Amino acid sequence: MDTFSGHIVKSYDQELNQMLSLVMKMGEKAGQCLEDAIKALVEKNGSLAQTVIQTDPEIDKLEREVDDLAVKILALRRPVARDLRTVIAALKITSDIERMGDHAANISRRAIELKGEKLPTSVDALARMTQLVVTMLKQALVAYQNSDEEMALHVWHQDREVDNMYAGLLRELLTYMMEDPRHIGACSQMLFIAKNIERSGDHVTNIAETIFYMVTGKSFVPPEQA
Amino acid sequence: MAKMQAQKLNLYYGYKQVLQDVSLNIPAKQVTSLIGPSGCGKSSFLRCLNRMNDHIEGVRIEGKVKLDRKNIYDPSADLVSLRARVGMVFQKPNPFPKSIYENVAYGPRIHGMYKTQADLDHIVERSLTQAGLWKEVKDRLDQMGTSLSGGQQQRLCIARAVAVNPEVLLMDEPCSALDPIATAKVEELIDHLRTSLSVVIVTHSLSQAARLSQQTAFFHQGRLIEASPTETLFTNPQNDETQKYITGRYG
Asked: Does domain B2-246 fall into CATH 3.40.50.300?
């Protein structure tokens, strides 16, 4: 069933649904890119890393398509209330997803550089952290499609776990580097990768906040600021 | 502070109930828009605010409408002074078949609002200036009001309404017969008028309500469903019926 329905003018529903499916497609692509980027790192798979780098422009293109459609809807349909918030949300969510695509491409470039290096076991923690961020993104997309603010809040709270994992990884990599200066090259690359993933988690929390606004009409206030 | 207050207003045309328990405050020096589908009672409500429904056969009104805390339906209320204090502009411009000057001078004449001819000249100039029409007509005040374009005629009617210094101006779809440029001029005028008086406007154009008013009230089937600050109503309406109507989902 389409998410948007009930407008007297049916083509309005169609445009909103089209916008929603473009955002979903973009989010799924970015999630896949993050997964593949880390897989390329772990499995030292250069061609997979290349695929991720080549997918990034496709994500950018989807963002432009959503932008164009959103501008068209704003100009021609003059959306208000829930419809207006939906269009604003699409614009904000896609700019977060676009950044996640950039992070995936960055990780892939480092994966290519690290192909010949022996990686410390911390790479497993990186993979787990990525898996958590990707799961959060998938849940956020379901929350977006179903206008489910409860689920969006659930996603938001999981970011703390990502931050904890990031802090742990930082300590671990630091220890490796202190142990043997020959690890510094690879470990500092991995630090950047960890940062990319941690930032991706932040983008997912932004998306969760946007979904909360879209559904409730209220700005999300983090619990510690409430 | 509320300039006008409708309290538990019920309106019947014969056996048909047109308004049910409508309570709404009209804030001073603000524009209030009344929106809702055709037949929802918004125009009927507007007409209650200066007792324009009195003449309709079989009309019955319960509840109160207060102007500065005095009930305008009180038997002792002075209808002539009420109509001067609460003016009205209609959907179709309806200038009198008289000169531009006489159209505007009509109200001040019947209310005896001037002493000398110079006073009256001044009132006419002030009113036409307030209505943004003075520059366009100052050299042809003796021409017929009906010779003006539709948009100019509507601004002439507004000049006629403001000539008697009303405190509230009621407007029933004042732009529905006008092109976008004339509409913009009237909207600019309304925005300017609210520095000195309260405006209540019935409009079918939701974007006009959004552009123009500070408060919006949504009527449906004779009931007031929601009245909120315009910004709230168009970004986050509290009522599901309102949401459906303003997003174009209402059958």
From this structure: yes
Residue A5 has pLDDT above 60, yes or no: yes
Rounded Cα–Cα distance for residues B7 and B11 (Å)? 12
Instruction: Look at B234 and A217 and tell me if their CB atoms are within 8 Å.
Output: no
**Could you tell me the pTM of the whole model?**
0.83
Question: Cα B108 from chain centroid?
Answer: 19
Q: Are B9 and B65 in contact (CB under 8 A)?
A: yes
The answer to whether residues B187 and B178 touch, using CB atoms and an 8 Å cutoff, is no
On whether any CB of chain A is under 8 Å from the CB of B236, the answer is yes
Q: Which residues of A touch B250 (CB under 8 A)?
A: 8
CB A42: neighbour CB atoms within 10 A? 15
Amino acid at A9: V
Amino acid at B62: E
Mind giving me the DSSP string for B103-160?
HHHHHHHHTT--SSHHHHHHHHHHHHHHTT-HHHHTT-TTSBGGGS-HHHHHHHHHHH
What distances in angstroms separate CA B35 from CA A76, B199, B207, one per listed residue? 21, 14, 11
CA distance A196 to A34: 10
Quick one: pLDDT band at residue B55, thresholds 50, 70, 90? confident
Is residue B96 helix, strand or coil? coil
Cβ atoms of A140 and A204 within 8 Å: the answer is yes
Interface predicted TM-score (ipTM) of this complex, two decimals: 0.75
Q: What is the pLDDT of residues A60-113, one digit of tens each?
A: 999 999 999 999 999 999 999 999 999 999 999 999 999 999 999 999 999 999
Q: What tokens appear for B211 in the block?
A: 């552009």
Cβ neighbours of residue B64 under 8 Å, at least 6 residues apart? Answer: B5, B6, B7, B8, B9, B71, B73
Domain ranges of chain B: 2-246
Contact between chains at A6 and B243 (C-beta distance less than 8 A): no
Residue B165: per-residue pLDDT: 94
Pairwise CA distance, residues A35 & A137, whole Å: 11
Q: Is A94 helix (H, G, I), strand (E, B) or coil?
A: helix
φ and ψ at residue B99, rounded to 5 degrees:
-70, 165
CA nearest neighbour of B200 among B27, B59, B39, B6: B27
pLDDT, tens digit, 9 for 90 and up, residues B200-233:
999 999 999 999 999 999 999 999 999 999 999 9
- Using the Cβ of B100 and the Cβ atoms of chain A, whether some distance falls under 8 Å is answered with no
Among A150, A146, A131, A136, smallest CA distance to A207 is for A136
Contacts of A201 (CB under 8 A, 6+ apart): A132, A133, A136, A159, A162, A163
Are B247 and A9 within 8 A, CB to CB? no
